[in-house]
Amino acid sequence: MTDRPLSGLLVVSIEQAVAAPYCTSRLADAGARVIKVERPEGDFARGYDQAAAGESSYFVWLNRGKESLVLNLALPADRTMLQRICDDADVLVQNLKPGALERKGIGPEALRARNPALITCSISGYGETGPLADRKAYDLLIQAESGLCSITGGPDEPARVGISIVDIATGAAAHAAILEALIARGRHGKGCDIRISMFDVIADWMAVPFLHAAGGASPKRMGLSHPSISPYGVFALRDGQQVLISIQNDREWAGFARDILRRPDLALDGRFATNNDRVRN
């Protein structure tokens, strides 16, 4: 197909692991030509598992539809090649350690000086500056440090979310920011520099628990239940089976009480009439 939304765009991505590859996989799905730049030893996500017919499930999922280019950016000739490719590119994405490209003279600012229409997007763990800028950042670490693990799992112990939620959220945020930058460039013709931090992204996603904590009532770990909505979670039946119920509002509750429980009176009972009543009781 040549009529996909991003057909004709060239994206260069110096990427590894999950966050940046997730972002650029979405750009590739929309028709962009994505050149994935790997170091000579390759993206370490290639070795995560062998679940996809002997290949890494992560790598197959996140890198389909891309072109691959091996560059050793310690070599002047390879740095020159990257510069020349970026001279014709629309977007550069990278998730190397903060400052790595700048130290080699090929940072976003230098590349945009050569190509003012270039949109650059740098993904880091904890931001480009500050006391944590140089720390390695992995999905589990930021799940824990952001407080996400403290509200995930059952009462007995915290848990990680079962997928790489921080990486995926960060990639999605980078993808959205790049699309916004492309729209802006269409108006004024200039590229821009985007900085995305994994910690910042998931901290934003944690806004509701943070607001509860600020109000003096930190959410508790409740497994599949919800601290603010009821009934919501797994409930035992008389025959020993379990059922998952997710009632989002009072209208649904009234219908559930009438049609499923055959107890329409519960929707009028002062203990259960509103969601706040049901959560309290």
UniProtKB/TrEMBL annotation:
<dbReference type="InterPro" id="IPR003673">
    <property type="entry name" value="CoA-Trfase_fam_III"/>
</dbReference>
<dbReference type="InterPro" id="IPR023606">
    <property type="entry name" value="CoA-Trfase_III_dom_1_sf"/>
</dbReference>
<dbReference type="GO" id="GO:0008410">
    <property type="term" value="F:CoA-transferase activity"/>
</dbReference>
<dbReference type="InterPro" id="IPR050483">
    <property type="entry name" value="CoA-transferase_III_domain"/>
</dbReference>
<keyword id="KW-0808">Transferase</keyword>
<dbReference type="InterPro" id="IPR044855">
    <property type="entry name" value="CoA-Trfase_III_dom3_sf"/>
</dbReference>
<dbReference type="Pfam" id="PF02515">
    <property type="entry name" value="CoA_transf_3"/>
</dbReference>
<protein>
    <submittedName>
        <fullName>CoA transferase</fullName>
    </submittedName>
</protein>
